[in-house]
Amino acid sequence: QVQLVESGGGLVQPGGSLRLSCAASGSIFSINAMGWYRQAPGKQRELVATISGITTNYADSVKGRFTISRDNAKNTVYLQMNSLKPEDTNVYYCNALIATMNLQERTYWGQGTQVTVSS
Fold first, then answer.
1. Which long-range contacts (CB under 8 A, 24 or more apart) does 2-7 make?
2. Distance from the Cα of residue 61 to its chain's centroid
């Protein structure tokens, strides 16, 4: 069984910063792509950023403000969020494409962490 556990969300003022973390644990053989998505109430979940190897990809709305990184030794992905705006307020979800020890590969999701940007 595989789990993704997120942390680091919270309340921050506009212009502030937060760092989200997501640690994968369990019967992991390998982790391929990892990423962050976000979803506001009543809206579809949208991609924020992904990382696969050294290749990163960002939504246009966060380019230049957010940075995704990964620590392979810790099976952890990070999202550094700077210059936060009220429209960044969302529940942020971690996502990972993981092959387990029985070589079954599938996508896993974290439970979500709330980020609120407000003065």
1. 2/26, 2/27, 2/28, 2/98, 2/100, 2/108, 3/108, 4/94, 4/95, 4/96, 4/108, 4/109, 4/110, 4/111, 5/110, 5/111, 6/92, 6/93, 6/94, 6/110, 6/111, 6/112, 6/113, 7/113
2. 15
Q: Tell me the mean pLDDT in the region 90-112.
A: 94
Is the model's pLDDT at 20 over the cut of 90?
yes
Which of residues 111 and 41 earns the better pLDDT score?
A: 111
DSSP state of 45: -
Phi, then psi, of 52 in degrees rounded to 5: -140, 115
What does the angle CA 18 – CA 6 – CA 95 come to, to the nearest 5 degrees? 105
Q: How far apart are CA 55 and CA 34, in angstroms?
A: 11
| 85-92 average pLDDT score | 96
In this prediction, residues 61-89 reach a mean pLDDT of 97
